[in-house]
Fold this sequence. Notes:
Chain A: Keywords: ATP-binding, Ion transport, Nucleotide-binding, Transport, Zinc, Zinc transport. By secondary structure, chain A is α/β, with parallel strands linked by helices. Chain A has helices spanning about 50-55, 80-85, 100-105, 120-135, 150-165, 180-195, 205-215, 230-235, 235-245, and strands at about 10-20, 25-35, 40-45, 65-70, 75, 85-90, 170, 200-205, 215-220, 225-230, 250, 260.
Amino acid sequence: MNQAAPLRTPIIVTRELGTGYPGYAVGRDISLGIAPGEVLCLLGPNGCGKTTLFKTMLGLLPAQAGEVLIDGQPIISLARADIARRVAYVPQAHAAQFPYRVIDMVVMGRTAHLGLFAAPSPADRSKAHEALGALGIDELSEVEYTRISGGQRQLALIARALAQDAPAIVMDEPTASLDFGNQVTVLSEIKRLKGLGLAIVLSTHDPDHAFSVADTVALMHNGRLMSQGPPAAVLTPQALQTVYGVNVSLVDLDGGRTLCAPDYETGRLR
Amino acid sequence: MSIYRQLKVCFLALAWLSGSSALARELVDSGGRPINVPEQITKVFAAGPPASILLYVLAPEKMTGWPNPLRPAEAPYVAEPFRDLPALGRLTGRGGTANLEVVLRVKPDLILDFGSVRDTYISLANAVQSQTGIPYALIDGRFAATPASLRLLGKILAVEERAETLASYVEKTFNEIDSVIASILESDRPRVYLARGPDGLETGVKGSINTEIIERAGGRNVADAPGQRGIVRASIEQVIVANPDTIITWDPIFYENVYKDPLWSGIEAVERRRVYLSPVAPFGWIDRPPSINRVIGLKWLAGLFYPDKLGGDLNAMTREFYKLFYHVDLSDAELETLIEWSKGQAPSNAGAR
Amino acid sequence: MVEGTSTLERRRTLSEHPTAILFGLTGLLVVLIAVAASTGAYPISFGEMLAAIWRWLTGQDPIGTTDTVLFEIRLPRVFAGVLAGAALAAAGAAYQGLFRNPLVSPDILGVSSGAGLGAVIGIFFSLPIWAIQFSAFAMGLATVGVVYLIASMVRGREPILVLVLAGVVVGSLTGAAISLLKILADPYDQLPAIVFWLLGSLSSIRNADVINAAPLVLIALIPLILLRWRINVLSLGDEEAKALGVDSSKLRLVVIFAATLMTASVVAISGVIGWVGLVIPHLARMLVGPNFERLLPASMLMGGGYLLLVDTVARSLTVTEIPLGILTAIIGAPFFLWLLARGRDGWS
């Protein structure tokens, strides 16, 4: 594994972070760090608090305990645009209310770089086209966002995060609504971005995806981090059984990849 | 169900027994409805403002209250004991606010409504009568029917003599005016605009109850929109096109502004200083509400339209009407306040007010 | 099927030429203004109108009633119609983005019902017209202020939802207060005035009204123009806008203030006029797309033209005036249903 990672200064750090809402805790004692060129993959069952953690990491929800540091500064001391220039967010693909064209949607990623009263310049537009090209959907740029498929929307939202030009990207289940081919597109894009030195945090439900792109896996269970470390160390059959209640066997492929095969005969244990 | 019906019958019987110690009389109201009223009627509940005025002029001692509280400016023009009667709400018309239980609490011998006798009001009368067990008399409120309506209510209330006095006064007024304007060509009659509201741009369309005394007094209402009735909004452009030679209003804000406003300055009535502010106390002279109060307004308008033939001493005429109908002797000061601008003086002293 | 496809195609082609559309709408508005200015109860021919305008341009003294009618009555009314329509449509466009809901109208936070209450209070106390207008304006602003304060005191997870609910609650309270005053008002005198005010009308518009309202509308327009791009981002929702670097709560406050100021200024002189702020931005979005940079001018041009057209009909269709609120509802409601049916067609 990439042993150089700990030497770099992390972009996003959470210290004993508590997430949730006043009087209603979702997650607690979460300490994480993501450095440039590193991919952190968050795994955990539905409702374990991944999205809430992401929103707290982005400063969209206030921390209930502990703190979030961006580039070493407490997130609460940063203005929204300062955060947005450092961390981009890819929400789960959603249905938009208004039929913006895809290019308009993507160019909104440039907002944090614009003056308060400015609108995007041609340079901003070409950055947006570049990002769409990287995900192979530039031909959709003039189509209305409401008319493209869920998978294409997810790609467009990733393109918007790329256009945001932030050194870190937080992606909430970026592969969830994608077909098989587009999953590969997204995962290889993540690998490419990592190669460019970006710090990436993503959540996924598929251990295979964690094995294929993650440097670090954080396994969440009941609002806490159960374990954290390289995929092979964290995603053991025992850990997966504890978290998901499913018997799995791990298969090592040639070339160092690992696949996760659930046991459909016994099914769910709980 | 049947128990309730029996109870109801018992109650009605009791009410009849207790209330009808005096002999009942059978009469027919203006809606053609037979009503049974006691020989001696001492308390009457007026269903709305027009009815309350009809009752006040005819038999104020039988009143149980007013539909709305009198305003401070109105009270001096209502005779002393009656100006302090309670406000009991209105039973009919726009925004009925009276509670049937309030009606029952004051135990009237009769409920009186004065106005339209269309089916809506007939069915309302029947409903209230069967709910309360109190006879409900519907009296025709059309202006032309005023003498007949006075006489009918006089008969119901057994005050025929007073009713006859008032009815013949109204008849005499009608006849006087009718005989004069009969000889005047339609085209020679004044073109009148009724300016309502502070901007003067609400008006009553020709043929509606709100403006009928304009025609009755021999004027022509310029707001003539066939097929329309009631109160409408006009634009100043339409007023300019209609170019009335006489403007009647009761809104002091409009009256104070009309001579200063350049938009109105070209209109004939303004140029000729023929804008008249109608008195409004205790009741309106033109409308507000449409009841007996319009008789004095009719005399006033006829005098304005035809000063040579129908003009008289407004002061004396007003005193006489207020004495005869409203039971008040106007002091000089009260009279002055009342008809201050009704002769159409320029509001030169407006600022001093 | 084929028909549906062709409308979709046409729609796409239209929104690809936004500049041409904006020029077209401007031209249409100019034509409407000319037609409206030469229409009315007082006969003024097109030639007389041009001659009067020439006299005015060259500084000659106005001649007679024609000039009075044109410059003191008709043109103020025409400009008031354009101003009110444009302001209501602009406020509607801003609110639909802010609330992420194409079914939102400018009075969602209670500005119209507040202004209505202000005017009704003014009528109830028989105040002069300028005071009625001022009362309407001030109560419109104050009502939205109260709604905003209530919403910011409630710490919820959904600021927009809390805002809308606070608007509904305060709106129905002001509605109750209006009803109470209607009951207490003089039924022969004040009640008709109240009813007419609540139905909206431009029949008593003066130059002074336009001169008072126009600067306020322009002041309110400035932040909407300057922040046009950020208003787009805001329409993605609170969290996404924040993640994209927009301080959404501050921006929301600015947009609410601008839209409220605009609406209150015109409602104070025109009375309550519904539907324009709801239907017009919808239609404009169909023509030029949802991008606020183009949606704002398109909405304003169409809103101005639409209300001018409706008001011209209101004052020339019958001898008396038809209240604007009645006409905008009669035209707006079926049109809106048609839009809804068509919109679902397009999204399926």
